[in-house]
């Protein structure tokens, strides 16, 4: 397998300076699950009083760790908690062996960290269909537990990477009633799925207190506007997991607090954008804004039809302001559209309106926008006030290289 | 724009020897709509007594010719009929000008061929969003009418090509009650859509008589098992049109005749396969068979999820028996699946069963199958008796070349 090691041209300058989140400590280690010469397992331990929420892939073939996490979430519990993530092997489509691995790991983590096993969450990312060598991970747990540190989040972000070309983090500090509250999150993902590897994983921590049921609701709502609005290649992983943990260690209750919601939403959006910016073979980051749709739901369907269209994505790679393909994608989406009410912009350039190319349109203007690295396509349906924004990247030879040619 | 002129490696040896269909005559000409040095318009005139049926793209942004054809079909009518098709310009997303072009052309065809304008059908394929120079087409109508010939179908197939790398035809002759009945069809399409061009067009003719309402029903049913079961890139054209004309000139009534249905279905499947074999950049033809699904509809959803997955298609291009990606596609499809009841075969090689890789699986065996040009992937869901078969091609650098790089 060829290694894709070049940093994405869309990557941020470096890993951000994340604020410390009181109530959670991190450690990472090299367990040798599949990779050598790098860390591949991370442990996070959360103090008692932590609310934990999660959203997961809706795939019908989801992995054993996902099924285990889903069975443990819900209900009110504020015992201490732990998250153990390995890279290199996804423990997906591994039959009953997969469940055994999850049990062995969660039991060992519970024993060593003194966290109830019902509050030990795991995730695995990497090759599908091979048994997870869980013994290698279990042998590292004492070392991990001894190394737990409030400042270990950046190393944790590196330990969970597979074919990611950069580690992804985002954070925020805000004042609530004169008290500082912090949020810090990490993500991995390079496309919905990478060569033989699956998964987007996201872990976000805050020292605010948020009641368990409100935390889950908040997470679900914000996920719909952030991670559920990105696509690299329309393929959905068997292991996607996003967990949000509120330790409460700041002593501040941020339940239903609007500024906190805003700050958390920004962190999630930043992480989601970073995943797109590390999309397989990506050379352009594209924001697609839909307005005037019959409903918000219709707007998202149109946005995703454009974002997932191979013909739109290849046109973007070719720096071609090919609005005919945008019209095609809207037409096929299945959501309401009226050909003669559509208007389409590339950047600020009005391309098409009233069912035809705009009389003032000059292709040079749109072509100039397409040469940039961060692009926008705006479509107004002219029907009602439904809107949505989604994000994607282009489809390039790099995607084919990574996904077809890696055996060469 | 780079011209893609290399014949697809999956193309048949040559254009088939099609039987003559009494009651329909063809002509083609070079009108210079966009291309030079080749024919780009074809006319077919059908004798009185012909039943005409059609199915069209469901795109919400469908072209003016499609809307015109849809308004004319239905109801019982057996006047003479005409079909006029041009390549080079799709007359799609051309506002009110598009409707005017259709009216001008259909009125002129009616006048020159002496066919009622309500029975003149048109289609246009090529660039989107540019006004159709209908005068160029109208100027050729007398020449076309004078050249009408029973044997002109192969030239007609060539006149409607855009970026197709080969002309597509299929036919059958059968005996019904001791009488010969013929079927001949032509198609164009090279992907659901080609560089700046749209459209799959299919025209099928038979000299059998079939009552109008039964013909439409037959066409719709057979389309669901043939053309609606192929995909090149998941993108739907704004102009897809399929018309079936039964002239009745054989004097044989084939209404509800099972052998006729079988023969017609074979012709349609052959043409559909030829479209996939001319898929943009295709190097592999792939049959995907789904069995054991909860319903036939679910089976088709699973089949299309596999056939449209960029990760499955790039794996096929890389000759990689990547069954993990097949599991992923089944999981994301939204149709019912149970991870632990799935079985997957590449060719005859059992790859996965009981939620994991098959104990007897040797990757060399599956890898050997993947080196072929005609591949099959079979999935049994193990749930009930729903089944479907769909066809696709791989996703290669050629697709990116055609759709992203053609401005270079």
From TrEMBL, chains A, B:
The keyword Endoplasmic reticulum does not apply. It is found in: Cytoplasm. It catalyses: L-glutamate + acetyl-CoA = N-acetyl-L-glutamate + CoA + H(+); N(2)-acetyl-L-ornithine + L-glutamate = N-acetyl-L-glutamate + L-ornithine. Pathway: Amino-acid biosynthesis; L-arginine biosynthesis; N(2)-acetyl-L-ornithine from L-glutamate: step 1/4; Amino-acid biosynthesis; L-arginine biosynthesis; L-ornithine and N-acetyl-L-glutamate from L-glutamate and N(2)-acetyl-L-ornithine (cyclic): step 1/1. The active site is at 199 (nucleophile). Substrate binds at residues 162, 188, 199, 280, 403, 408. Its EC number is 2.3.1.35, 2.3.1.1. Its main location: cytoplasm. One of its GO terms (biological process) is L-arginine biosynthetic process. GO terms for molecular function: L-glutamate N-acetyltransferase activity; L-glutamate N-acetyltransferase activity, acting on acetyl-L-ornithine as donor. GO terms for cellular component: cytoplasm. The keyword Transmembrane does not apply. The record marks 198-199 as: Cleavage. The record marks 125-126 as: Involved in the stabilization of negative charge on the oxyanion by the formation of the oxyanion hole. It comes from the Bacteria. Keywords: Acyltransferase, Amino-acid biosynthesis, Arginine biosynthesis, Autocatalytic cleavage, Cytoplasm, Multifunctional enzyme, Transferase. HAMAP family: ArgJ. Catalyzes two activities which are involved in the cyclic version of arginine biosynthesis: the synthesis of N-acetylglutamate from glutamate and acetyl-CoA as the acetyl donor, and of ornithine by transacetylation between N(2)-acetylornithine and glutamate. Belongs to the ArgJ family. Heterotetramer of two alpha and two beta chains. This is Arginine biosynthesis bifunctional protein ArgJ. It comes from Sedimentitalea nanhaiensis.
């Amino acid at each position: 397998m060829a290694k894709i090691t070049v940093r994405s041209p869309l990557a941020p300058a470096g890993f951000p300076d994340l604020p410390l989140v009181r109530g959670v400590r991190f450690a990472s280690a090299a367990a040798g699950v599949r990779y050598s010469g790098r860390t591949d397992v991370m442990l996070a331990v959360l103090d008692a009083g932590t609310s934990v929420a999660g959203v997961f892939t809706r795939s019908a073939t989801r992995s054993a760790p996902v099924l285990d996490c889903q069975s443990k979430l819900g209900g009110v519990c504020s015992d201490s908690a732990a998250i153990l993530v390995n890279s290199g092997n996804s423990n997906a489509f591994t039959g009953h062996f997969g469940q055994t691995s999850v049990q062995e790991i969660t039991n060992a983590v519970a024993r060593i960290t003194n966290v109830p096993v019902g509050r030990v969450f795991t995730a695995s990312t990497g090759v599908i269909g091979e048994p997870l060598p869980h013994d290698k991970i279990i042998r590292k747990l004492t070392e991990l537990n001894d190394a737990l540190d409030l400042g270990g989040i950046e190393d944790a972000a590196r330990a969970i990477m597979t074919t990611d070309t950069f580690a992804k983090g985002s954070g925020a500090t805000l004042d609530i009633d004169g008290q500082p509250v912090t949020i810090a999150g990490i993500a991995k993902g390079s496309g919905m799925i990478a060569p033989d590897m699956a998964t987007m994983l996201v872990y976000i921590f805050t020292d605010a207190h948020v009641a368990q049921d409100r935390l889950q609701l908040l997470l679900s709502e914000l996920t719909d506007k952030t991670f559920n609005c990105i696509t690299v290649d329309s393929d959905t992983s068997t292991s996607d997991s996003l967990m949000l943990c509120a330790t409460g260690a700041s002593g501040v209750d941020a339940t239903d607090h609007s500024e906190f919601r805003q700050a958390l939403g920004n962190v999630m959006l930043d992480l989601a954008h970073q995943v797109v910016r590390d999309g397989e073979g990506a050379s352009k980051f594209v924001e697609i804004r839909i307005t005037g749709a019959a409903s918000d739901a219709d707007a998202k369907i149109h946005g995703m039809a454009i974002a997932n269209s191979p013909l739109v994505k290849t046109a973007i790679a070719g720096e071609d302001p090919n609005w005919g393909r945008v019209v095609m994608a809207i037409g096929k989406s299945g959501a309401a559209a009226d050909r003669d009410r559509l208007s389409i912009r590339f950047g600020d350039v009005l391309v098409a309106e009233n069912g035809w190319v705009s009389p003032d349109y000059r292709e040079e203007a749109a072509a100039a926008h397409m040469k940039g690295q961060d692009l926008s396509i705006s479509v107004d349906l002219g029907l009602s006030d439904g809107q949505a924004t989604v994000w994607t990247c282009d489809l390039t030879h790099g995607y084919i290289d990574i996904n077809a040619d890696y055996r060469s």
